[in-house]
């Protein structure tokens, strides 16, 4: 077993072990902490050993159901390395901030399980393996929504589940279809990404298969017409699962577009790119304005997340080196800051029992440390210089200007819109008169600071020394853009 | 010949879907689910005989085995549900779908 397999299976095996042995809550929390910290240790080792010059590394290949071409095939490259790192960083910090609030075994066991599922989906290079982990990741989210959620949680859990399973099934049909096509062209089944690249499909076929995949990813992200599950689910979900959904699961959807659709159907993706740029830009502005009108703070952050995810989708679909690097960078930057903000919203709810923005106010006066960090993470979401968000957004906007000047101008509005909804929320929550709910607000305790300060430092480091982080992504992006160049010259 | 089998399979499947959607008794709904499974089994076997490829027949055997174990599981669930509400009306067990 090498590093990648341990990163994937250690959390899953630990979760199963805890589920069947039913130990006391203290032991569960300790095991959770040990497992997530060892995953973090392994991931940091992976980051240091990662050789930026090569694209796909640490490849593991074991035969599994070889008769049907299904094999255990995992590997990591520049873009997936970012997601692995932020998954490994965020998970232990979530516990640190929440471990005094949550005393149910299921909460921590499900979080461990979801971590393993996400790691597996990010790293797998075999379509069947990917599908397996993609579904594995959904199950704990469903249980956590139903068991630990707030207001009309059962309805929301069921709606979310049916929505995402519908998308996944469309993806399964598409996967099976291309495997059968591969058999007709090459004589044997294969689900391997490297093998399926050789496949030639007619324009109509590849468009249909593309839509099957895209439906699954669009629902998970969510991009514009598939967002109706979003606000209710975020509102009802417990803090741990909101962080998983906004920081990790949604990013996985965007990453999967790049990893699978751009690799398998490069020409089709390129042909439909203007359509998705349009949807992305519309979503960016629409979700931004929706965020401005929300009165519930979690819903507001849900729409703010969706707005930035649309920006990431635009960054991928403008088919440019800058756009690709910027989007990969924004995946990590936005994950870190939105995880921190949702964590702080969770902490705020535990103290005030109020979610409506109008019920809050004046927190800066009683809790300066909380206010400082809250403003800092909001600034990073907006994309103010010296934060990671700035670097990423500038790169995407550069790419968009190279694509087309009008697209570039529209993409620039993201900073403006994000500023409007973020500053409106910050001013209402942190400033103004103290309300009934906030007058006894306690400032951040030590364990909460220990969880939030590393995230803040990381965002600062990513904003001031972007080169150190970008050099790991750049070669992957460049080798990829050479492939695109072939299409541009056609 | 394949066509006749497929038509039968589609008819069985449709009956199953209608039964699942329209009836509210849990046991009848379970029977409809079994009908769906068997419709799929029938089409799998017919296609496999038509293509002279035995792998689909193996799969249908696996499906039968799974359906048998599922039946045992469902029966025990029905007993638990009946003890709870003294009825097997599916409308009484809509906790996951209600907006409350």
From TrEMBL, chain A:
PANTHER family: NADH-UBIQUINONE OXIDOREDUCTASE CHAIN 4. GO terms for cellular component: endomembrane system; membrane. Keywords: Membrane, Transmembrane, Transmembrane helix. This is NADH-quinone oxidoreductase subunit M. Residues 124-416 form the NADH:quinone oxidoreductase/Mrp antiporter transmembrane domain. InterPro entries: NADH_Q_OxRdtase_chainM/4, NADH_UbQ_OxRdtase, ND/Mrp_TM. The chain crosses the membrane at residues 6-23, 30-50, 70-94, 106-125, 131-150, 162-180, 207-226, 238-258, 270-289, 301-322, 328-349, 370-397, 403-423, 449-470. Belongs to the complex I subunit 4 family. One of its GO terms (molecular function) is NADH dehydrogenase (ubiquinone) activity. It is a multi-pass membrane protein. GO terms for biological process: ATP synthesis coupled electron transport; electron transport coupled proton transport. It is found in: Endomembrane system; Membrane.
UniProtKB/TrEMBL annotation, chain B:
The keyword Cell membrane applies. One of its GO terms (biological process) is ATP synthesis coupled electron transport. GO terms for cellular component: NADH dehydrogenase complex; plasma membrane. It comes from the Bacteria. Keywords: Cell membrane, Membrane, NAD, Oxidoreductase, Quinone, Translocase, Transmembrane, Transmembrane helix, Transport, Ubiquinone. It is a multi-pass membrane protein. Its EC number is 7.1.1.-. The chain crosses the membrane at residues 6-23, 35-52, 58-82. It is found in: Cell membrane; Membrane. One of its GO terms (molecular function) is quinone binding. It catalyses: a quinone + NADH + 5 H(+)(in) = a quinol + NAD(+) + 4 H(+)(out). It holds the Pfam family Oxidored_q2. NDH-1 shuttles electrons from NADH, via FMN and iron-sulfur (Fe-S) centers, to quinones in the respiratory chain. The immediate electron acceptor for the enzyme in this species is believed to be ubiquinone. Couples the redox reaction to proton translocation (for every two electrons transferred, four hydrogen ions are translocated across the cytoplasmic membrane), and thus conserves the redox energy in a proton gradient. NDH-1 is composed of 14 different subunits. Subunits NuoA, H, J, K, L, M, N constitute the membrane sector of the complex. Belongs to the complex I subunit 4L family. This is NADH-quinone oxidoreductase subunit K. The lineage of its organism: Bacteria, Pseudomonadati, Campylobacterota, Epsilonproteobacteria, Campylobacterales.
């Amino acid at each position: 077993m090498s590093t990648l397999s341990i990163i994937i299976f250690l959390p899953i095996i630990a979760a199963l072990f805890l589920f069947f042995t039913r130990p006391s809550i203290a032991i569960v929390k300790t095991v959770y902490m040990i497992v997530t910290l060892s995953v973090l240790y392994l991931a940091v080792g992976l980051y240091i050993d990662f050789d930026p010059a090569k694209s796909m590394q640490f490849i593991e290949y074991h035969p599994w159901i070889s008769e049907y071409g299904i094999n255990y095939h995992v590997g990591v490259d520049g873009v997936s390395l970012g997601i692995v790192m932020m998954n490994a960083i965020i998970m232990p910090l979530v516990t640190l901030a929440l471990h005094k609030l949550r005393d149910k075994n299921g909460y921590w066991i499900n979080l461990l399980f979801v971590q393993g599922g996400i790691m597996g989906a990010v790293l797998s290079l075999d379509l069947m393996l990917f599908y397996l982990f993609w579904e594995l990741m959904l199950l704990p989210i469903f249980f956590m929504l139903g068991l630990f959620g707030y207001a009309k949680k059962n309805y929301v859990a069921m709606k979310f589940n049916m929505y995402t399973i519908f998308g996944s099934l469309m993806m399964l049909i598409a996967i099976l279809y291309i495997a059968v096509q591969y058999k007709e062209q090459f004589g044997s089944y294969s689900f391997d990404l490297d093998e399926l690249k050789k496949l030639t499909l007619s324009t109509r076929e590849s468009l249909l298969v593309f839509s099957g995949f895209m439906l699954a990813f669009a629902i998970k992200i969510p991009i514009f017409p598939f967002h109706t599950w979003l606000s209710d689910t975020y509102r009802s979900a417990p803090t741990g699962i909101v962080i998983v959904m906004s920081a990790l699961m949604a990013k996985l959807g965007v990453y999967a577009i790049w990893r699978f659709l751009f690799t398998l159907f490069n020409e089709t993706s390129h042909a439909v790119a203007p359509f998705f740029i349009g949807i992305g830009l519309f979503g960016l502005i629409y979700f931004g304005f929706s965020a401005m009108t929300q009165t519930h703070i979690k819903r507001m952050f849900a729409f703010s997340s969706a707005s930035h995810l649309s920006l990431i989708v635009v960054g991928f679909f403008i088919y440019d080196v800058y756009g690709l690097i910027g989007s990969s960078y924004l995946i990590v930057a936005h994950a870190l800051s939105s995880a921190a903000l949702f964590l702080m919203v969770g902490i705020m709810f535990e103290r005030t029992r109020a979610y409506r923005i109008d019920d809050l106010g004046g927190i800066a006066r009683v809790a300066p440390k909380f206010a400082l960090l809250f403003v800092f993470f909001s600034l990073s979401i907006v994309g103010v210089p010296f934060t990671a968000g700035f670097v990423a957004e500038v790169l995407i906007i550069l790419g968009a200007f190279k694509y087309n000047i009008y697209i570039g101008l529209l993409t620039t509005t993201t900073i403006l819109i994000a500023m409007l909804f973020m500053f409106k929320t910050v001013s209402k929550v942190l400033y103004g008169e103290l309300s009934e709910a906030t007058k006894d607000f306690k400032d951040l305790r030590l364990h909460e600071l220990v969880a939030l300060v590393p995230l803040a430092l990381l965002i600062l480091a990513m904003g001031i020394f972007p080169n150190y982080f970008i050099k790991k992504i750049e070669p992957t992006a460049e080798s990829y853009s050479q492939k695109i160049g072939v299409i541009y010259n056609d | 010949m394949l066509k006749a089998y497929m038509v039968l399979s589609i008819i069985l499947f449709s009956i199953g879907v209608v039964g699942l959607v329209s009836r509210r008794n849990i046991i009848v709904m379970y029977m409809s689910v079994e009908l769906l499974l068997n419709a799929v089994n029938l089409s799998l076997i017919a296609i496999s005989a038509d293509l002279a490829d035995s792998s689909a027949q193996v799969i249908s055997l696996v499906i039968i085995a799974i359906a048998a174990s599922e039946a045992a599981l469902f029966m025990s669930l029905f007993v638990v549900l009946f003890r709870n509400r003294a009825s097997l009306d599916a409308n009484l067990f809509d906790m996951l779908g209600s907006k409350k």
